[in-house]
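Researcher: Next entry in the queue.
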Amino acid sequence: MKRLLIAVLLFALAAAPMAASTFVAMRTPELIADSQAAVQGQVLKVHSFWSPSGRIVVTEALVRVEETIFGDAPSIVRVQTFGGNVDGFIVEADGFPKFEAGQRMVLFLSPEKDGVARVTGYQFGQFHVQRDKAGVEFAVPALDLGTNVVTKDGKPFARPQAVRLDTFKDRVRETARRSGRIEN
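Model: Structure for this entry, 184 residues:
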């Protein structure tokens, strides 16, 4: 009986879905190098749908750009990512950007095609803009810790911390300037 119980338990564990995503950590200089632009904006609308192949749920967010931190971006950016909710069919895509109408955020953007952008570095390139009780705005990393994170150089990954929004944007501009992405 004990062997049967162990066999059933092992079978159940083997049959359990092992869905996990592993992402290479991206720091600000890497985000800047791989992005066409960084913007601060507000999500106007979010819509999920099936990809043309019918095999993947995709979410598209329309983001009104309040400020371009570096690079070129239109006044309204269409951003697509994996996951979403289509008629009650929910696909959770850990580590991928998530959007809700009304959210304010900073996004590092890479062009895709047909006027659609993606967030560079997945959630590494997404920061929520949140206000504290004193009214000070902060850039808060959107990373969910359920994601496996590795670094290119094998060093331990230190989760980025919330930073005052104005300080964060100044650091991004300065790093972009030093890397030649912004002219003096």
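Model: The chain has a mean pLDDT of 85.
Researcher: Noted, moving on.
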